[in-house]
Design goal:
By secondary structure, the chain is an alpha+beta fold. Helices cover about 50% and strands about 20% of the residues.
Length: about 450
């Protein structure tokens, strides 16, 4: 009887523990599933931002590169015309080679072709191969920008930029420059997030890797094509403007499964100490959410100035474009380059504290902005300002106010700093209906202002 009673009381004493264990198990199971879904959502958001931002950056880079080659061809048309007439003139060839290397130090090769696409310069080093010549022919056929893709070469895998050059309004031929594929790989390295890999795939050959974060496909210690299994794991893909590339995000093998296993293991460990499960759960939940918020903040903000960064700019501009389309409103994008830090006498600092200069400049610009203006740090000395529901006159005044504020001296530990700011802006929908058009217009205006300021500074000195 005593044994039966003791067993009965023993069962009674374990019953609440069993119920608690079941409740804790159910709660941990729910929590683990919630964490995993939050992880999936966070990864998806980061992945979309990474691909969108990097694709836009590469597209803008290619556009700017093509524009630079076109400007170079316009400025050197006399030399190009002489070479067209005397393609075997070594002296002229050397002159053009020096000027190309000066303007495009990372260029791999260049050549000239006639209007029909036939190369005019003898290719001494074999750098302009059959694929490049095919590109020139295609360009000559339709006089349109052929889509950029990677050309295999025994020396350097590269891509081509080609433009017409004219004289007196009549097309004279084609100017052609090749650039190493690693220039694009740098952008992939900057844009990809931990646990993921950004790759450029050839749109016309499914699964063919063109460029990865380490460089062109020849550097990959693997097959040049993605396997069917890897193709199924691509969650997000976006075409890159002006190229035959699709930018894809490929999660590392086992990324999500390892995350799930890690979360389940954490839950089982907590189950072993169910009396303190509530404290452990709340602590893990708090740390998880805090870590997510910190990563989200770091992802969208500049560590030097604390301002929103270019990823924030991309997301916020898309939101403004969507709102503007629905509400028939306008907004503006203003690019700002504060210029190099100078002493009041016009001389340059040997090693200025760039962080202090950027921080002081950001505070000065912020003081000129209104409640509906957002200041963004881009890269180097460049900032951007997004202004909601403004007109062209208003953004012009804002640009003037910003430039006037920055021309006043800034105080840093190295002394007094004078900036030479340059601005350029674009207004939606006057100057463009999408992100690329607005960025291109604002960039062109800003760089034109930089050239004017540089010229004026040179004349003053």
């Amino acid at each position: 009887m005593t044994t039966k009673r003791s067993k009965f009381f023993e069962l009674q004493s374990w019953a609440p523990a069993g119920v608690m264990l079941v409740m804790v198990g159910a709660l941990l199971a729910w929590h683990t599933d919630a964490r995993y879904k939050e992880f999936q959502r966070n990864q998806e958001s980061l992945m979309h931002s990474s691909v969108n931002g990097t694709a836009g950056e590469i597209g803008t880079y290619l556009t700017e590169l093509r524009r630079s080659v076109h400007l170079f061809a316009d400025s050197e048309k006399e030399l190009l015309d002489k070479l067209r007439s005397s393609p075997d003139d070594i002296k002229l060839h050397d002159q053009l080679n020096q000027r190309v290397r000066f303007h495009f130090p990372e260029a791999f090769a260049f050549t000239l072709a006639n209007r029909g696409g036939d190369p005019l310069l003898e290719d001494f080093d074999g750098l302009v191969g059959e694929v490049c010549q095919h590109d020139i022919k295609q360009f000559a056929t339709d006089r349109a920008h052929s889509e950029i893709y990677v050309h295999p070469n025994s020396d350097v895998y590269h891509f081509d930029i080609m433009v017409d050059w004219d004289k007196g309004g009549a097309a004279q031929g084609i100017f052609f420059v090749s650039f190493p594929a690693d220039l694009v790989a740098r952008t992939l390295r900057r844009g990809q997030i931990p646990g993921h890999r950004l790759m450029l795939l050839n749109r016309n050959i499914p699964g063919l890797i063109e460029i990865a974060d380490i460089g062109p496909r020849i550097l990959l210690k693997r097959e040049f094509k993605l396997s069917p299994e890897e193709m199924r794991h691509i969650d997000y893909s976006l075409p890159v403007a002006g190229s035959s590339w699709n930018l894809v995000d490929l999660p590392e093998a086992g990324l999500f499964e390892n995350a799930r296993r890690s979360m389940v293991r954490d839950a089982l460990l907590v189950m072993g100490a169910f009396l303190s499960v509530t404290i452990v759960m709340m602590g893990l939940l708090y740390l998880s959410r805090k870590k997510t918020q910190e990563l989200d903040h770091l992802y969208r903000h500049d560590p030097v100035t604390g301002l929103p960064n270019r990823y924030f700019l991309l997301e916020h501009m898309q939101e403004l474009i969507d709102q503007a389309k629905r509400r028939h409103m306008s907004f503006s994008l203003l690019f700002l380059d504060i210029g190099d830090a100078r002493r009041p006498d016009g001389g340059f600092f040997d090693r200025p504290d760039l962080a202090q200069v950027l921080q002081s400049a950001a505070v000065r610009v912020q003081a000129t902005l209104g409640e509906r203006d957002t200041l963004v740090r881009l890269t180097g000395n460049e900032f951007a300002v997004l202004s909601e529901d403004v007109s062209g006159d208003q953004i012009t005044r804002l640009a003037e106010n910003i430039e006037a504020a920055l021309r006043q001296s800034l105080e840093i530990s190295d002394g007094t700093v004078i900036c030479l700011p340059s601005t350029g802006f674009a207004v939606y929908p006057t100057h463009g209906m999408d992100f690329e058009e607005l960025v291109k217009e604002a960039n062109l205006v800003m760089y034109a202002a930089k050239r004017r300021n540089s010229l004026a500074a040179g004349l003053t000195q």
